[in-house]
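Submission sheet (multi-component)
Chains listed below:
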Amino acid sequence: MSHTHEHHHDHTEPPEAIALRVKALESLLIEKGLVDPTAMDALVDTYQHKVGPRNGAQVVAKAWFDPDYKHRLLEDATAAIAELGFSGVQGEDMVVVENTATVHNVTVCTLCSCYPWPTLGLPPVWYKSAPYRSRIVIDPRSVLAEFGLIIPDDKEVRVWDSSAELRYLVLPERPAGTDGWSEERLIELVTRDAMIGTGLPKTPGDEA
Amino acid sequence: MNGVHDLGGMHGFGPVLTEENEPIFHHDWERRVFPLFASLFVGGHFNVDEFRHSIERMEPAEYLQSSYYEHWLHAFENLLLEKGVISTGELQGTAKPTPPTQPVTVLTPDIVETVVLGGASSRAKEPVSGRFRVGDRVRTKNLNPTTHTRLPRYARGKVGTIEIAHGAFATPDTMAHGLGEQPQQVYAVRFSATELWGVARPDSVCIDLWDNYLEAV
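Outcome: structure written.
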């Protein structure tokens, strides 16, 4: 499995110093009438509670369940995803790429940290980190191995570097042994990492 | 610009460190930085390309040592200072805050859902023709502008194939510098690992590139 650590050394200043800087800027912008703190609260609430990888899981499960939907999703991902009510900021123009027997897709943004917010929520720290952004394009197989994913030597790893305003979602292959499953049951197999491409869906019996 | 942000293909950063049950925000201050982007964007104080370019201009060592939301904080402070929306004195608390001289749009709670679900696509409103078709072989130019670009260093002077024609989008190279949208076709261009890295693997990288980053092969 991938490495984990308990404490993130991800800031240059003590948190208290950053917090003061943030407070100074926010207070100034409020005092000047440029931002409304209640709108800021509503934005945080949206991304903490309403937007997340459960949205993307619904898209993937529907594509597995409904061949017509899958066709629409691969033809015009933005419209097909909007059918389920997911759209907007950092997902204005979507592309879905399908894993097959011969291609495994994985996404990155090497230049910043672009990520499909409407379907996956806000990105995890590792997706935004220098190790992931630097290595996944030049050495994808060792990165995927750190996530526990070994890709056969003859299968293509296709990395999508989202350098423009398109946002990518990976459509993983439907796990074997799920014939006859309902869409609702299939949702439970879809993980965030499977939709980034650093993981695979859960398999039947593993979904709890 | 050939900045520190352009990380693709670099060595030495170590393993990818994941966190079990990662919270959406790690600190309360991140909860106050995150919503400033949408608030200030709706206010028209900067566009996303100016925002990215501001982060790219961070002092390189500081960029690498600081977190995603620290990058955002840096961009907000610097863009608002550069554009004269706030003053150094106001930010440091040594000058009394003055109200804006022009009427400003303020993001209010009643329009948050509309803004979030609507977004702000940079897709061109009018059709713009492109020079290439799916399947065409192209070479990326060897561009090294000191200004903003979205052509990563690892993909300059490389031959690839047009995989997807995405349609026309505003050009970040001009948007970041007050030179307008100047929309162009954007293509997903697929490069083999052999072409990019000189290795014999069946792998590839697809990169979204604007028409004028490319030349016919």
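Remark: The longest helix of chain A spans residues 15-31.
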